[in-house]
């Protein structure tokens, strides 16, 4: 049988990028899961003040509106949730010492004793119920609404007991209590702050190992160690954590290399990642992650609405080239939306199903067959990309070249960065666009947290893919892990066949730390776990 070589476009792209920018630096070996860390070397003593950079200044420290990188990176050290997502991506008790499920539609949380807010007031069930009930109030504008759609009521049913009643069984709810969706703030603080919750003036009032000490807009956010913290295993080693807001990547890289900044998490590799890898003052660690790089379909008509066209493009794409060239070795090829770090249960079963699926290994012969079945469409396909993003531009160019090698007509529409976010919420913004590139992540180690996108009427189901809606609803209501895994396996098989979204790469956490410190969490859990408590001097 004649074998098709990988398309030359990938090699041409690699040469072009290296020649144009030299940004790739030394070629990195292919990334494997064994290369990804959950933690870093333990520190031995306090490092005094730790200065950390955020990719942008937080919009708020209100936990219900914290669904983004900078906000959660800061809040994870301040505001604790009922459950806790650990560095190795497991879920364990947090502020709740116990979570029970006495009926399929009831969760009962028993809070720990002797937990205090920073102002010395004890944590009560009334605080927890008030915090969670904010997600049920449309006027509050929560960004975590997807986890509360099945909630009927949340009540304090004892001094340390909170009872959540669901309208229907939902296996994701309790797991979501390990994210900022389950964060607890002091009830009296919430009532006093009103609409000014999370502002630079008010900050937050929580129970975490670092407490809010001040926020200078445009400059910095300061946290200080909570010396009365309830959990001895997670008491902060260092005294102060100062966040800076250097958004320009070149400036941030220079500040990290010079030692002005001690560390930063990156969700995409900066153009200067080679300079960070070669830095004499610090080092890069790649961490386990739930994030992935994907082409999100939003066409409901035309060629890209045909699953055979999407499958043809997916089959032809060289994911390894994207990982090595565009992501400079700081990514790995991925052929499913919910890869190994999502397998919080039934991992052996998911592994077998994962290995059996097509890996999309730049198979031009199979891609051509699929496209022929679709009638070799001639109508153009339009990809939307974010302006000023080299990663988006380069990935789109590779997709365009791959598609054109198959005979597809692909055009690229550049959308200003200020408007790109509208694609996720405004159907009018998506008019004339068949697909767009995006990072995406679930929040918890359960594949359903990703595949739940494809429910009928789902707010992120942009191309109205409906073939797994019934299976998703069954899986969400299935409390038995083995039976749920069987349902999820079927969902994954259909989604992988029809590729409403084309997964491209797993995106590890990119952590840079100055050599004077160590101990930061390396995994994706840094968004919800007190990742800075272990940071100290070597």
What does this structure look like?
Helix content is 27%, strand content 21%. Mean pLDDT is 93; it is low at 1-24. The protein has helices at 8-21, 69-75, 125-133, 171-176, 187-193, 249-258, 273-277, 307-316, 319-326, 347-356, 364-373, 390-406, 417-420, 448-451, 469-476, 481-498; strands at residues 49-53, 83-85, 91-93, 96-103, 106-111, 151-158, 161-166, 210-216, 220-225, 240-244, 263-266, 282-287, 291-297, 332-333, 381-386, 410-415, 435-441, 501-506, 509-514, 517-518, 536-537. The protein has 538 residues and is α+β, with helices and mostly antiparallel strands. It is globular, with a radius of gyration of 23 Å. The strands form five sheets. It has a seven-stranded mixed sheet, with helices on one face.
Overview features:
538 residues; alpha+beta; 6-stranded mixed sheet; 27% helix; 21% strand; disordered N terminus
Short recap of the structure:
This protein is of the alpha+beta class and 538 residues long. Helix content is 27%, strand content 21%.
Average of per-residue pLDDT values: 93
Strand arrangement, largest sheet?
A: 8-9-10-1-11-19-12
| Rg, nearest Å | 23 Å
Uncertain segments of ≥5 residues (pLDDT<50)? 1-24
Q: State which percent range the strand residues make up.
A: 15-25%
Principal-axes shape call: globular
Characterize the largest beta sheet: strand count, sense, and whether it forms a barrel.
7 strands, mixed
Number of strands: 21
Specify the helix fraction band.
25-40%
Class based on secondary structure composition and strand pairing: alpha+beta
Number of H/I helices? 16
Terminus-to-terminus distance: 57 Å
